[in-house]
Amino acid sequence: MQVKLLAHASDNNTTSGPAFKALFPNGLDPEVRPLGVAQVAAATTLREGLDTQPAAAKVKEQAVAGFDKALSALSAAIDAREAAETALRGDCHQASF
Question: Which of 11, 20, 29, 72 measures 20 to 30 Å from 5, CA to CA?
Fold first, then answer.
């Protein structure tokens, strides 16, 4: 996670510090464990933290463009997957009649 590394660099500390605590108040699990739609929600919450946490200002400067691009790609991929699954269920349902 680039944001985690940037937070540690901003804090000049490899374990914790103001930027890391502001962005990851509950540690990394809430950001790294979710899958699918929950992963997009977790990333969106982290992105909001970049905007609202003063301690993370240096991290935001370095990460926001790449983060936004990755979040957009992830969201589009999840949307496409859900659309494909919906279409597949519809095709299977029609084929059973």
Answer: 72
